[in-house]
Request: fold
Amino acid sequence: MAAAASKLTSKDFQSDQDVRWCPGCGDYSILANLQRVMPELGVPRENFVFVSGIGCSSRFPYYMNTYGMHTIHGRAPAFATGIKATRPDLSVWVVTGDGDGLSIGGNHLLHTIRRNVNVQILLFNNRVYGLTKGQYSPTSRLGMKTKSTPDGAIDHPIDPLAFALGAGATFVARTIDVHTQHLQEVLRRAHAHRGTSFVEILQNCPVYNDNEWLEVEDRKQRVGAALVLEDDEPLVWGSEGSRAGIRIHDGVPSVIELADDHDAVAKGVAIHHERHETPAYAFALASLQRPAFPLPIGVFRAVDKPSYGELLEDQVATARSRRGEGDLAALLNSGDTWEVTP
Amino acid sequence: MSGKPTEEIERVAIRFCGDSGDGMQLTGTKFTEATALAGNDLSTLPDYPAEIRAPAGTLAGVSGFQVHFSSADIRTPADSPDVLVAFNPAALRANVEDVRPGGMVIVNVDAFTRKNIQRAGYEDDPLPALGDRFEIVEVPITSLNRAAVSSLGLGSRDADRAKNFFALGLMYWLYNRPMEPTLRWLESRFEGNVLEANVRVLKAGHAFGETTELFPGSFIVPRAKIQPGIYRNITGNTAMAWGIVAAGVQLQRPVFLGAYPITPASDVLHELARYRHFGVKTFQAEDEIAAISAAIGASFAGNLGITTTSGPGMVLKQEALGLAVMTELPLVVVDIQRAGPSTGMPTKIEQGDLLLALHGRNGVSPVPVLAAYSPGDCFHTVLEAFQIAVTYMTPVVVLSDTYLANSAEPWLIPDVEALPRRPVEFHTEAEGFQPYQRDPETLARPWAIPGNPGTEHRIGGLSKEDVTGNVAYDPANNEHMIALRNEKVQRIAQEISPIEIFGSDSGKLLVIGWGGTHGAITSAVEAAQEDGLSVSSIHLRHLNPFPPNLGEVLGRFDKILVPELNCGQLTPILRSEFLVPAELMAKNQGQPFKVQEIRDRIGNVLDEEVR
Reply:
């Protein structure tokens, strides 16, 4: 099967269904890049399962020529848990959005991450409800005016990565719909991780919230707006003449302006480590928001912990080695029984 | 055997009652186990409050356990106990009016302090007045118990915890039950002083019966003459769990249970969690929705997905259940009904969820519904549900209830070799595969699972095109698919045996029941038949679809009576589907039907006709 998998191309992952997102939707780019990465992962096509809930992003499985389930609103992580818990051999991907994943489905996202179920969760964040035509979402900015908030949204938004870190996520990353190379690399890393991989993909909704992420989507603006995380490298961004770094003191990040010849580390700029045992560092990174700070993209945290599936399989194996393979007749006749004779 | 005289009796019903911390459920369970081993037919009724420890000595905290045993065939825990063992005034007050006139009331007289008497709501000691109507036996259980363990140096609190076993030992003597099963259980469970205390107290209770002048003699209930075979004692929830294990073995696929703790269904989760060596995976989900969703995911991946719950949880699962209907995946949903609405009375009995199971979802969303009729029948019902689920590629609802879940009966252990065996076969052929191509006999779609090359496909909740399963909004196709799903569920009727009628094949009155009321209905109908009335009964296990000859059977009787522990759920269906004047007998007290209630109603229905 591995040989067959190596011969696959992105075309093998395209289903026969017409893709029906709006023109200019960020989902097109995510779909194309995922289809490009899939053949490289060494997984036979029949072992992929894509699971989604409800929303624009959740149409995703229909366009992937793999096994897939388009389920009910917010519950995709729970369906994926049942699949992965019973079939550790499968590569299970959850596709969700900011409304599906963080509003109606917040509970399932929390618990799936906490259990460290070995699935990839891709949360497309466009900070708006698209399929229901433009209401504000849990990640919409305070004050955002939509059909359901004509006077502006008055709920404080949640940051998806902070949510995932709070739930104890072992792999947390952020990438951008149109940043092809970065997106592909993050997807590869997510697949390689053991346990829940949580990936926020900044995604543009051209109809209801256009240019929400323009600063980091646009190649020219990105240099000054995005902080690209690289393991064991200092937290530095900007172009020549406007370099800066992030210092983290007592858990509080601040910006340090850097001249071109400055040694960033000597100036107190923090060095990025994905593997900090405590999530506090990654949490500090997740607090960096525009415009006061650059928006970090890349892998925030990648630590190793046993996955739910491994622990479950261990229990099954232990039970079998201790008690032998289950014997139904022995079970039914266990304990106190008595015979009634004719 | 006692040195005092013994008297042979056919049957007796005993109710143990006390504070919810007094160990009444354990006492009743141990008495039941000993009674089962004594070879009697039996039926039990645990009745306890939802509060784990309500304030001691109050009516709110009273917990009871009734056990009915006999040398003849019995089907119910008995309408009224012949013997009441009351550990305090509150327990007495909550239960004494249920005792049959002239019955024996054994009280722990040490608990009848001024304070306890008032806390129970009595003005004065009630015992003298009750002595006119019952045979009151005053036993100083607390002090006799303390005396029995005095040399062990336990604190009075620890010592008092054993007092239920003093009463148990006394009842073992009074009804000549073997103590060995309980002693074995104690040895497996405790050690040191605690073991010693319980053993001493149990034996002290037994010896007290032999020596006290309060009891002139003991009673013997001979072994029952029931169908030969190997028996065990079983509750509905244990039978349900074992039926689920059996499904995995008989269908040769691993079981995956998604469940969220809820009374009275949690015990099925607890029981199944012990069977990892059968390959059973249990998943305590974050909520009821995740529980069913994970089970559906497991089914999609080729396992036997199941979720277990009770009413409020059943409500939460409905959207996901609708998805299982749309995606046509096998799934079993067990709803162990409890008294509603809302949180209702979580530990009490009701048959309130039939219409919820049948019609609780948006749109036209047909699911087969089965109901178990006795504790042991839960095993066979859930096994059948899985067979239907995988054969017809459909979710199936199994209804049990609080009574079936917690009550026990002797169970003829099935021969595993004789159980239905239907190994699952997945669709593996890639050539020409279509996810919604149907089997011409069953209308089931193929079950092709992830990992199988060439049958990759996507399913979901959106309307499906016939055969391909692609998303479709075509009006005619939508109507066609709704009809197909309905027809598929109706075709399950081809697997259902014709209804067995209890009594004559035709007559003046047919009593129809479903679920846990089987024992009470059958006993009442039998009593009426013995009195010469023209009455028969049937009990429906299959509520959707109905057995194929139901309409024909209904037509052979002049009148139809439907006892239900709700405000009428099967009744209106029978009326509308078969255009028969089905008469409802409703009860909504959180308690099972008494045999006499149904017997009286049968008389009323038939007398009216005579007039």
Summary: The domain at 232-418 of chain B is CATH 3.40.50.970 (Rossmann fold). The longest strand of chain B covers residues 11-19. Chain B has a mean pLDDT of 96. Chain B has three domains: 6-220, 232-418, 507-610.
